[in-house]
């Protein structure tokens, strides 16, 4: 369980707050708008109305006590930058800030953000990859040209075991799990038989996966 300070309760911030709470983290949520704070209050540990560009207000939160500070402000470029900078100046351990453009991302990193998230770009990548071929069912970008794909079993592998398909040696990718009848099976082995309606979760470089599954 982590102590997390979440600043900015627009649509993105609200979804983050609710998911963090589902994962049993302690979340302090902050926004300048009362209606946003009231909306998320039932789902978080605590929620406050306040101006995150105020050094006095941020100081009162004890930012050093949080494991992660997330700046989810997406509709005010200046406020996002000022909040990120102030958090770092006040000794925040880890600052993760939402970027809304490439330029915004660069400024955030220069002004104290340890990491950035760029939801629009990440969703665009997922959408482009997910719908680039009929046999791709999901996609997780791991950075540095590596990813996890959920893909249909190639017809040449149907009726063969993982060992017989010899995927790792021939294609330099790893089968992590398979989904059968809607259920994810992580307990696969070299003797696992591949069936027509299975889907596979495979890990590898984008180049090797695309070459192997022809997309």
Automatic annotation (TrEMBL):
Annotated GO MF terms: monoatomic cation transmembrane transporter activity
PROSITE patterns reported for this sequence: RCK_C, RCK_N
Source organism of this protein record: Marvinbryantia formatexigens DSM 14469
GO biological process: potassium ion transport
UniProt-listed InterPro entries: NAD(P)-bd_dom_sf (IPR036291), RCK_C (IPR006037), RCK_C_sf (IPR036721), RCK_N (IPR003148), Trk_Ktr_HKT_K-transport (IPR050721)
Superkingdom in the source lineage: Bacteria
Protein's recorded name: TrkA N-terminal domain protein
Ranges for domain RCK C-terminal: 134-215
Domain RCK N-terminal stretches: 1-118
Any Pfam family the entry gives: TrkA_N
């Amino acid at each position: 369980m982590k102590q997390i300070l979440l600043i900015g309760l627009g649509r993105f911030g609200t979804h983050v707050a609710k998911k963090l709470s589902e994962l049993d983290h302690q979340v302090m949520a902050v926004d300048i708008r009362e209606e946003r704070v009231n909306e998320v209050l039932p789902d978080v540990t605590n929620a406050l109305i306040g101006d995150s560009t105020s050094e006095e207000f941020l100081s009162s939160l004890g930012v050093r006590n949080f494991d992660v500070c997330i700046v989810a402000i997406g509709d005010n470029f200046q406020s996002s930058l000022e909040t990120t900078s102030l958090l770092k100046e006040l000794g925040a351990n880890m600052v993760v800030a939402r970027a809304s453009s490439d330029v915004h991302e660069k400024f955030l990193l220069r002004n104290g953000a340890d990491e950035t998230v760029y939801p629009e770009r990440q969703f665009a990548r997922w959408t482009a990859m997910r719908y680039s071929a009929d046999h791709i069912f999901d996609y997780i970008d791991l950075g540095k040209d590596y990813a996890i794909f959920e893909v249909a079993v190639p017809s040449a592998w149907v009726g063969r075991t993982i060992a017989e398909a010899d995927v790792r040696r021939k294609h330099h990718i790893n089968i992590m799990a398979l989904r059968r009848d809607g259920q994810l099976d992580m307990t696969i082995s070299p003797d696992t038989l591949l069936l027509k309606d299975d889907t596979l979760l495979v890990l590898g470089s984008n180049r090797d996966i695309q070459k192997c599954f022809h997309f």
